[in-house]
Amino acid sequence: MNKQLKASDSPPLIFPVSAGIYSGSFKTDSLSAYEQLIFLYRNLCDRKVEASAIHSYGIHTALNGDMDESLNIFTEALSINATLKNNAGVIKNHQSMMRIHAFMGNYFNAVKLGNTLVDLSLISQNDVSLADTYLLLSQIFISQNNFKDAENLVMKKALPLLYYKLNDKIGAIKCYDQLAFNYKSQKRFSEAKWFYIQSNLLARKIGHSESIVNSLINLAHVKMAIGDWQLALNDIQEAEQLSVKNQYKFQLIEIKKDLFELYSKLGNLNAANLALLQFKQLEEEYLVSVQ
Question: Is the dihedral of CA 212, 217, 223, 228 positive or negative?
């Protein structure tokens, strides 16, 4: 979810505002970057941009771990966008709130928001938002072991919309991955492997290296689940080469952990110990980078 939230917004620059009225209270201390933006646009009477700044603040708050407060902030942004009849803003607010509720396990609220998003997307003819909502609803249904509805949403709605109408190959790859994860969750490994292979083939066809890496990792996990250790190792080694070449540091963390397990299973203890050492080093570097 963090990756989705980060991708949906860009942090604003800090404006040189040191004090003023924000949310009805006078502040003599320095305002945060987001509060400065909101304060600035509120005083400029640009409510649309103010709502966007508030939404950014909600994402910042969620990434810092305060989910309840982020929902309050998104609600404030939603109120402004609804008053302005800014449909794009309303959809954006609903999407973030839906993701937060899903992350917190509040599936009833997440599904309710998802159904609202479907209606809003249909009314505004926003096919991208519609497809994204179908995929997110499918994830929620999988979390609830509602595998059939999850499958139908992707197979009958999201995939045709993305592949044929929008010609969005990256979106189609996400659909294949979602279907594969659905089957893997049910331990239907043959079907899961087939869809991960489709994801891999399409990623190679369009030359999308990150999707190739992700599909190789997912394929390896299925093969590990059924005890095909050597075949899984082949996939992980290729994923490692591509990740090093493209500097996919986050994927490398998972790859090194998988290599430790695979080499251990295959009896190569020296390689396993090296992979474990590299995993711990990469994990520590990543944790330091996000603090």
Answer: positive
